[in-house]
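Hello forum,

I keep getting stuck at the same step: I have a sequence, I want structure tokens, and every attempt I make locally crashes halfway through. Rather than fight my setup again tonight, could one of you with a working pipeline run this one for me? It's a single chain of 159 residues.
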Amino acid sequence: MTVTIRAFRPDDQEAARILILAGLGEHFGFIDESMNPDLDDIQRSYKANGAVFVVAEARGGIVGTGALIEKAPETGRLVRMSVSPHHRGKGIGRALVGRLLSEARARGYLSVVCETNHDWHDAIALYRSCGFRETGVRDGDRHFSKAIGNGKWELGAGS
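Reply #2:
Ran it on my machine without issues. Output:
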């Protein structure tokens, strides 16, 4: 199966929204759509505000998403990372992170941060495998950081 990581297009809106909300519902056992207004118009919420939003496409369908937003002038933040259950464990999450790290470097960021719930074990494993280090736990969320300002990036834990 060939997977392509590409920039979000407006016609991806509904598929990306459904994928992300389904992942949240899978983890939390319910979906409160009112808590996710950014997903109602991804183009406006992310791309129009200068963020990078990418999708993973396989066989003509969206199987993953991820976004890079600016947290501070030299720091990017990964958000909306999601891979469909049937496509997990195939390197799609790592490919999404890799693409977003490349985008972060192109923007001149020196580090990238992310967070996930303390019990979202797949996401924790993904970030660790991509070289992020845990920086703390606050309000039930695990926080991670990765320095990228050295001009190279590798997805292994040693980078």
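The radius of gyration is 15 Å. If your local run keeps crashing, start a new thread with the error log.
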